[in-house]
Amino acid sequence: MHRNSMYNIQVLIDYTEGLDTWILEIDIIALAKVDNGESYQNYNAAMLENYLERYYDANLTRLLKLKRNMDPTNVFRFPQSSPAIWNEESK
Question: What average pLDDT does range 22-38 have in this prediction?
Answer without folding.
Answer: 70
